[in-house]
Amino acid sequence: MDWFSEARYGMFVHYGLFILLGLGEWVMNRERIVPAEYRKLAE
């Protein structure tokens, strides 16, 4: 961890339900998934 601070290197990691589909964070738009169907992934 010291190396990251000293090198002034940062890493941003984000994730969500889209990870389950493996198609990226714009999956709802690209695949035309309606919110009601997308919510089912949370179960």
Automatic annotation (TrEMBL):
GO molecular function: alpha-L-fucosidase activity
Segments crossing the lipid bilayer: 12-29
Superkingdom of the organism of origin: Bacteria
Name of one Pfam family that matches: Alpha_L_fucos
Record keywords: Membrane, Transmembrane, Transmembrane helix
Domain Glycoside hydrolase family 29 N-terminal residue range list: 2-33
Signal peptide range: none
Annotated GO biological process: carbohydrate metabolic process
Protein name, as recorded: Alpha-L-fucosidase
Organism, as annotated: Puniceicoccus vermicola
Top-level taxonomy: Bacteria, Pseudomonadati, Verrucomicrobiota, Opitutia, Puniceicoccales
